[in-house]
Amino acid sequence: MVSVTRSVVWFSEVGREDIGLVGGKGANLGELTRAGIPVPPGFVVTADTYFRFIHQNGLEPVIKKELFGLNVHDTRQLNERAENIQRRIKSAPMPAHIADEIRAAYRELGGGPVAVRSSATAEDLPEASFAGQQSTFLNVVGEDNVVRAVQACWASLFEARAIFYREESGYDHTKVGLAVPVQRMVQSEISGVMFTVEPVTSDRTRITIEAVYGLGEGIVSGEISPDLYLVDKESLQIISKTVTPQDRMIARRPDADGSHEGANAWLPVPEHLRERQKLTDAEIRELARIGRAVEAHYGKPQDIEWAYEQGKFYLVQARPVTTLKAAVEADEGEEETAPILLTGQPASPGVGVGLVRIVHDPREIDIVKQGDVLVAEMTTPDFVPAMKRASAIVTERGGRTCHAAIVSRELGIPCVVGVAGAMGLEVGREVTVDGSAGRIYDGRAEARLAWYERQKERYARAAALKTTTKLYVNLAEPELAEVVAKRHVDGVGLLRAEFIVAQIGKHPRQFIEEGRPEEYTRRLEEGIKEFCRAFNPRPVVYRLTDFKTNEYANLEGGAKYEPTEENPMIGYRGASRYLREPDIFKLELEAIKGVRKEFKNLYVMVPFVRTPDELRGVKQLMSEQGLVRGDDFKLWMMVEVPSNVLILDRFIDVGIDGISIGSNDLTQLVLGIDRDSEALADIFDERNEAVMAAIQTAVTVARRRGITASICGQAPSVYPEVTEKLVEWGATSVSVSPDMIDQTREIIANAEAKLGRAPVH
Question: Keyword annotations for this protein (predicted)?
Answer without folding.
Answer: ATP-binding, Kinase, Magnesium, Metal-binding, Nucleotide-binding, Pyruvate, Transferase
